Amino acid sequence: MEDRRTPVSGPGAATALVGFTPAGSLGNVPVVVTTPGGSTTVAGGYTYV
């Protein structure tokens, strides 16, 4: 399995997030981040090329 970790962080954020992306079709897909406090979705947050 190829390592495709992609670190991201928000402006002024003190934390970083590492995600693993499975194989997918070309184009934009949403990214969902879930924490004990809830979840949020970034529409088109990742692009398969």
Q: Could you characterize the architecture of this molecule?
A:
With 49 residues, the protein is mostly beta strands. 0% of the residues lie in helices and 53% in strands. The protein has strands spanning 6-8, 17-19, 27-35, 38-48. The strands form two sheets. The chain has a two-stranded antiparallel sheet with strand order 1-2. It is elongated, with a radius of gyration of 12 Å. The mean pLDDT is 77.
In a few lines, what is going on in this structure?
The chain has 49 residues and is mainly β. Helices cover 0% and strands 53% of the residues. A two-stranded antiparallel sheet has the order 1-2. Strands 3-4 form a two-stranded antiparallel sheet.
Query: What structural class should be given to the helix and strand makeup?
Result: mainly beta
Encode the helix/strand succession as letters.
EEEE
Largest sheet: 2 strands, antiparallel
Helix content: under 10%
* Count of discrete alpha- or pi-helical segments spanning 4 or more residues: 0
Assess the beta-strand content as a share of residues: over 45%
Shape, per Cα inertia axes: elongated
* Strand numbers in spatial order across the main sheet: 1-2
**Whole-number average pLDDT?**
77
Low-confidence stretches: none
